């Protein structure tokens, strides 16, 4: 029996042709043959340009934009998807979304950090949205992994550079290696290439280590964790805790009422 995963990006995928194509190719290579990853992005017009970083570097804007993730997650469960994947490093609304659904929910950042703990004792994250540094460090603490985080640092180039790098990757790869070596010198045993566009660029060109230190393919981490959680639920009946403030789902009827009241039910269909 196959698995269907709703992938949710923080970008408007239609605006990013090279990145969109690279994601699709990467998913085909990494996912099991019976896993279908259905790609979704933000609603067209969400941002002023094809670069979300100007908005999501602000905590308030990121929270507001995360409401699209929440509405999409509810739609994913309604449409019978087996898992929902937040495919962006900040994991917007991860805890809140999990509290609303029964299907497995995975976050890009959390999956990468958890997998890092299997590969080395301490990890570091490299980002091109420098303003996310505090948020990623705070997320690591929330996930109980703060002591294993060496640091979060700027990789030294930006989103537009990464998009250009799909046609000319060599200069960016060398700059990435230089930034990674600084974190390795500080004690990192695993490097997480932060945002998904950077991750897929490196993975596409086979960059899996720097000087013997693994460079994580964070996209693969959430794919494999989503597949694992679906398998556990199907074969053993094991699923996420359903008790307590952060876990117990509300009634579906009330959830639909609240989504409608805040007019969030109009989201979830866009960007497919």
UniProtKB/TrEMBL annotation:
<dbReference type="InterPro" id="IPR053714">
    <property type="entry name" value="Iso_Racemase_Enz_sf"/>
</dbReference>
<dbReference type="InterPro" id="IPR015942">
    <property type="entry name" value="Asp/Glu/hydantoin_racemase"/>
</dbReference>
<dbReference type="InterPro" id="IPR052186">
    <property type="entry name" value="Hydantoin_racemase-like"/>
</dbReference>
<dbReference type="GO" id="GO:0047661">
    <property type="term" value="F:amino-acid racemase activity"/>
</dbReference>
<dbReference type="Pfam" id="PF01177">
    <property type="entry name" value="Asp_Glu_race"/>
</dbReference>
<comment type="similarity">
    <text>Belongs to the HyuE racemase family.</text>
</comment>
<protein>
    <submittedName>
        <fullName>Racemase</fullName>
    </submittedName>
</protein>
